[in-house]
Amino acid sequence: MEFTEAYKQTGPCCFSPNSRYVAVANDYRLVIRDTFSFQVVQLFSCLDKISYIEWALDSEYILCGLYKKPMIQAWSLTQPEWTCKIDEGPAGISYARWSPDSRHILTTSEFQLRLTVWSLLNTACVHVQWPKHGSKGVAFNQDGKFAAICTRRDCKDYVNLLSCQSWEIMGSFAVDTLDLADLEWSPDDSSIVVWDSPLEYKVLIYSPDGRCLFKYQAYECGLGVKTVSWSPCGQFLAIGSYDQMLRVLNHLTWKTFAEFLHLSTVRAPCSAAIFKEIDEPLQLDMSELSLDENFMPSNYDASEGYISVRYEVMELPVAFPFQKPPADKPNPKQGVGLLAWSKDSQYICTRNDSMPTALWIWDMRRLEVAAILVQKEPIRAAVWDPTCTRLLLCTGSSHLYMWTPSGAFCVCNPLPGFSISDLKWNIDGSCLLLKDKDAFCCATVPSLPESSDYSSDD
C-alpha cells in the first residue's frame, strides 16, 4: 500500500460517487481535491463551520450542512459561480440529503415539524408534515423513482411513498410499530423492512402497496433490534439484537435460517481461525543518532524501540475481553452494534459491543464463523472492499488491519502521529480514505490476486 501525505481537516471527508474527487471540511471552507494528484481543484467558503457534507449522485453538486446556523449551502463543481442557500427560518434544519436525481434537496426541520423537498431547477418546494426522524426514516428505492418517508400522526407511525419526479404522495399506510426506528428498501425493490425501537423487538416486512408480508419477533420483554441490513444480493436480511445474537432471514419465506451467538469463550470444535493482534518490538540501537522529536514515527517507543504489530493464530479455547454494561445507565454497550455484508453476500462481519475488541466474520454458505479478529483496542470501523472479498478495520492506532479468506495481516501507516479513527472506500475499491482527529490521508490499495497467499505477519 502507498500512502499520501496528511492533509488538514476539521470535519467530514468523503469521496465523490465517481471517485474523481474527495471533499474535505476545514472549518468554514470546503476543499475539493483531485484523487489522482491531490491538488485542490475547488475551494468554497461557507457562512459558518461545516457540520456535514454530501455529494449528489452525479458528482456535480455537493451540499454543506451548517447546522449551527442553521442552514444548507450547495455548490457546483462545473459552475463555481453558482450558489444555493437554504434557510428554514425559525423552523431550523436538523438534516439534509440529496434526492437520487441530484436536482432536489430534502431537509428536515428541528423537532421534526416538516420535511421539505427543494428543487434546484425551478426553486419550487414540497412539504411533508411530521416526519418521524431527522437523519433516519427516509429511503429511496434502487432506481430512484420512489421515496419512502416515515411520518407520525395521531400517535401512530406511517410510511408515505412519494414519486421522485412529481413529489406527490402515491400512497400511505400505517405500520404496526410502537415507535418506528427506521426502514430500508430491499435491493430488488419488492419490499420494505421496518423495525421498532429497542424497547420492542419487532421487524416488519411490507410490500410497497402496504401489505404486511411478515412480522418477526425473536423474543419479548427485553431490548430488541439494534442493527438491520439487507445482503447485496437481496436474498438475506440480517438482524443484530441486544441479546448478542445475529439472526438471518431468507427472502422467500421470511423464516430464520441462521442464528449466530457471540460467545465470550470459543472452545473446540471450531474450524474458525482466530487472529490476535500482538506487539513485536524491533530492537534497533539508535543511541548514536541525534534526531529531532518530530522525526520520530508514531510507532516508536523510547523504552522498547520500534513497535510493530502482527497477527498470531490462537489455539482453542480462547476467551475474549468482556465488558458488562452497568444496569443503571441508558444505551448499554451490548448487542450487535456493527454489521456489514461483503460484496458477494458470502460473508458478514459483526461486532458485539460487549466485546468491542473482537470482530466476527461469518460464512453464509457454511453457516459458521469463518474467522475472529481480536484487537488490542476497541474496533472503531470495519468496511468491506466494494469490488472483492476483503475487509479493512481500524482501532484508533497507527495500523490498518486487513482480512481476506486467505488470512489476516497488519499494515503500518508511515505518517508520524497519525491515528486511524475512521476509514472509507471509494466506489471502485482503488483508494482508501483514512481519518485522524484533525487530519486525513489516502492510501492506494492493490487489487487482490486470483489466489492470495497472505500470511498473518506480512
Automatic annotation (TrEMBL):
Domain of life, source organism: Eukaryota
Q: Which InterPro entries match?
A: Centrosome-WD_assoc, WD40/YVTN_repeat-like_dom_sf, WD40_rpt
SUPFAM superfamilies linked: DPP6 N-terminal domain-like
Gene Ontology CC annotation, any one: microtubule organizing center
Q: Which Gene3D superfamilies match?
A: YVTN repeat-like/Quinoprotein amine dehydrogenase
Where, by residue number, does the polypeptide cross the bilayer?
Answer: none
- Full protein name: WD-repeat protein
